[in-house]
Request: fold
Amino acid sequence: MTEPLLSVQHLKKWFPVRKGFFQRTVGHVKAVDDVSFDVAPRETLAVVGESGCGKTTLVKTILRLYEPDDGRMLFDGRDLAAASGSELRALRRDMQIVFQDPGASMNPRMTVRSIIEEGLVIHGVGTKRERQDRVVELLQKVGLDPAFRNRYPHQFSGGQRQRISIARALALSPRLLVLDEPISALDVSIQSQIVNLLNDLKQDLGLTYLFISHDLAMVEYLSDRVVVMYLGEIVESAPAAELYAKPLHPYTHSLLASAPRMDPDRRRAKLVLKDDVPSPINPPSGCRFHPRCPIAMDVCRTDKPQLIQIGDRLVRCHAVEQGIDTGAAIEKTTYHEHATPHEVHTG
Ligand code: SF4
Reply:
């Protein structure tokens, strides 16, 4: 079996909630709560969930922008949490991030050349001439004319700026790219171009992607496997083809139902969720999804479901554990047809 490039094991990141004059800790925001997954070399793993599900905290903890409270993160077998100073800098060369809003992540006073070159300068890579050649090569790779390298970010469209930020992320020849909602801020007409570019780069450069998104439809054509998170926990994880063909967890059903689909034959029944995502400070008892689940049972309100393995998949749901066909059970509920619509929040 191939060794994972990134292995996240029982990762936990809780933020204390403090109150009063003495700032006593009165609770915790359980942003990432016992999360485990592996990403194999050259694989694209998508982590999907609504705003507030913990995916951004997960990325920041893996990149060591937050210190983990518990668990391990191994990159190519090296412990990220234990790395310090020069070791961490070296590891960061191999792990780069592409942000959701390319404009906000670029200094407007820097030219495109300086933006792409910055990482090479910081890490002391190459001579000035070699760095300039690398900038030209990277701009060509992401489909931009190198003649524009002395322009500023505001002189480019949103899609072009995302291409620049991908070129910047590739400058140090990383092995893992963390793609944090890389297309959700772009026009729909541009999104597929960036997805195609990411696919091509993955093939050409043998890259591994950790793709973070609020939208399951967005990651369908790029991901090999999908992890679905809800209130800090993994609720389902599966090979992409299996998950899209037959979601098991009711939350995955709701994410798929809320995603627009191009193919009318594959449209799904509209499942509308009640209420917003509850507060992660005091998550609901039992199954954290039970207040919104259309097929919740009594046991769901009291007993926390464990992640169970079914073939290549993991799922956290009492109904699945009892052999209930969740798709058919959801279809039978009237609530997706007659409840007051309350759209799934994204962002
Ligand atoms: Fe719904 Fe119960 Fe499954 Fe939670 S455990 S998703 S409440 S059926």
User: Anything to note?
Assistant: Residues 272 and 343 are 6 Å apart (CA to CA).
